[in-house]
Amino acid sequence: MIKTIQRISLIALLLLPISQVCAQQKAYKWEKATESGYSYQYVSNDPTHSRFYILKNGLTVILSPNKKEPRIQTYIATKAGSKTDPKDHTGLAHYLEHMLFKGTDKLGTLDWAKEKPLLDQIDNLYDKYNSSNDEKERKSIYKEIDKVSGEAAKYAIANEYDKVMGNMGSEGSNAFTSFEQTVYIEDIPNNVLDKFLTVQAERFRNPILRLFHTELESVYEEKNIGLDNDNRKAIEAMFEAMFPNNNYGKQTVIGTIEHLKNPSLKAIREYYNTYYVPNNMGIIMSGDFDPNVVIKKIDAAFSYMQSKPIPAYTFDLEKPITTHINREVKGQDSEYLFLGFRFPGAINKDAKMLSLLGNMLTNGSAGLIDLNLVKSQKLLGAGAFPYVLKDYSILILQGRPSQGQTLTDVKNLLLGELEKLRKGDFSEDLITSIVNNERKGQIIRNDNYKYRADELMSAFTSELDWANELSNTEWLATITKKDIVEFANKYLNNQNYVAVYKRQGQDENVVKVEKPEITPISVNFDAESDFLTQVNEMPEASIEPMWVNYTEDIQKAKLKGLNILAVENKENELFSLIYRFNTGKWNDKKLGLAASYLQYLGTKNKSSEDFSKDFYKLATDFNISSGNEETNINISGLSSNFKPSVKLLHDLVNNCIVDEEAFEAYIDRLKKSRKNAKENKDRIMEGLRSYARYGANNPFNYTFTDAELDNLKAQDLVQVLHNLANMEYTILYFGPEKVEKIAKTLPTLKVKNTPYLKTSSIVEFKEIETHKNKVLFAPYKMQQVEIFWLKNSGSYDVSITPTVALFNNYFGGGMGSIVFQTIRESKALAYSTYAYFSQPTKKENKYFIGAYIGTQTDKFNEATQAMNELLNTLPESANSFETSKQSLLKSIASERVINTGILNNYIVAQRLGNTTDIRKNTFEQIPNLTFNDLKNFHKKEFSQKPYVYCIVGDEENLRKESMEKLGEFQKLTLDQIFGY
After folding, report:
1. Which of 113, 507, 653, 931 could make an SS bond with 330 (beta carbons 3.0 to 4.6 A apart)?
2. Which CATH number is 331's domain given?
3. Which parts of 494-599 are beta strand (E)?
């Protein structure tokens, strides 16, 4: 926590010229200290109070205490990723990441002595499989792998790792692999640290590659998802062209299809033994703990690890790009362009300049691309973002064409903004504004234990100096316009780039990973290893839950008849102010368009660009959004700039004037974006789901027809905005000021002393009853097929909230859930699958059931059958049920609703008609629930009920007869789905 005097000084600096900022700067220097028998380093004046330890075996431990919530964000990181994959086994680091959830010779096994010989046999079979080029022989070997794997699975406990972490109340259990890092993630209550360290030390002691062929099939599915992801294909094309000598470009994270088909378990173990050593790993934690206690526990848990020399990654230096390189990829999504420029790697000082350059171009408000291409509506969308890696970095510019534009037009416009950088055609005020916003960003990041841990982890894996990272804002303040111009001229010209043209069309180069024959394996829902039993029996202190008290935690006042709800920020100088109007797009379709149009408007005295620059100078974020039934106007930033930010907001909303040129460009871009939406499978699925829930006329397609758009006038939208300013609203404030002061000093948005305007009548959309099985199908060229089950249920009933929460946790809410274990772990039918009973957003709405599978087209019948079996019959697992219960209880007990979350919690309760924090009742009732309660709930709501199947897939490969077996078939046109 930053002391008050420090906070005041920090905010005062924001209002000073850069030269004065530098003069008052505190130094960030490495210091050494010893406490409780452990030496560590720290950086002076570090607001995160992070300690950097290196244990005797070389293991790096980074600890950053933060007392705001009784939880700890943990990362266990290895500085190895796809870049260090063997060239004949690409994707290996990613395989290994998946397998490190499978347990050891103690965790995840019923009988290791019986399981091991079978796993050894599978090893040898894979070696034989990989060495054969005879397809008939390979099929025969794979059948044997499948058979022996089924036998071995009888002794395995699928997802026992997830169960043990669930018992602890861990959240966000996950991992990721990138070019040069593999990171394992857990967010745990702080009272289970001993259990956590026991499990993690065991996890990395002797990982066993069990249940391999079903997990490999999940990786196949992940590869197929990537084949349907145009953005991933475009990025891979960019890296391949940019880095012909480095594995950034020579290999991909998931690997080639050929290598996916020929995995080597022995190669995976060799990789693990090479790179998963303590001198190449780090444990990073931020949260509520005493570092003196935690370092002792980590040392005791991981001292068994022995350091080894790490092979250096070597590569030939990339040759300078002297003339532009073009690449092209195709896919179903709308077209766009990537431009990439190569820069030095992370530890080079020029990588910092690259980040600044990215902000100069795109910062969401006042960057050159923001103002000159987005706000001026010369492109449908555009931005720049740096991609910083160890060996090299890239600046990537992206642009989407507007109506009638070519990708060449996009390229020329983007290059034009780089020309402005090279010529110095920008205001030096932009640099000052970037510094101010970075200071605000530091406050936000330092305040949150999750942000802290993430930044520390990234610095560790990229081998960045933390003192330099902390001093980044001060360094930015020393940069001049001349520095940026020189830097831009050094690295950016009209020839030294890679251009990736993402065209729309069928990708003829896609080779799908075919479905192997896999016999469902046993997942042993109710089994429990001796190790898990021992961990669960370890003592843990209790955490007392804390509930939101709507009377004590929320300050209330009146401002000329308007309600103010406020929460005081006692930690720092950040504020958030929201004007919440009870009117939305269902009251007036024009409201959504007007909210978007506002970003292109100015007043008689100030242009739209001036407003963006002024908000950015103040380090204030401004946003207006219109939902179906409400509209929010929001500003957030630094309390010292509260008054000028409010004044700026009121001026814009009250005094915005028609801009015909901006209106015509806005409508043209809107038409283009509506066309693009019809080419996006996620948007199509969203439309199908709305159609299934509400019928042919639904919230998704409640929009303007093309003819209605053509008849709109700019004045219509400006009038909507002026009317909004004269409607009644609720004020939601989070910040350092007392509510009494806000009530006295905050001006109302409405200027004239006239009655508030009435909201127009609302168009109501009612959920339709699901009477029979139906199929809503939308054809889309893709490798996978996506299926979403939907069924509407009854109206909100607060009494079933605990049952719903526990049921969702048990049935389909995570990797340890019944749905995930059955469909992915046992049957290898999907990479992503889930199911849930969805709570309404207000008491007048209905619950609905949702379930999802994304799978290969040739698995469609098996996948739908598997989900239907679960929807009709709820498998019983006493251990999984208890895990779900403990996980939920511990998550609720350690959850702290703070800051703006208190206001959001209250608003949600109001909508549902609740007068108290519903979490309290859930926490108190869960211990009393039995499996029969879940079984009865499932029988009442799920079993033998009709469903609407929303399906998006390739019409050529997906058999219509298969879909017709599910229910009454209806193929929808895009016009029916989108309403235009």
Report:
1. 507
2. 3.30.830.10
3. 498-504, 555-559, 562-568, 574-581
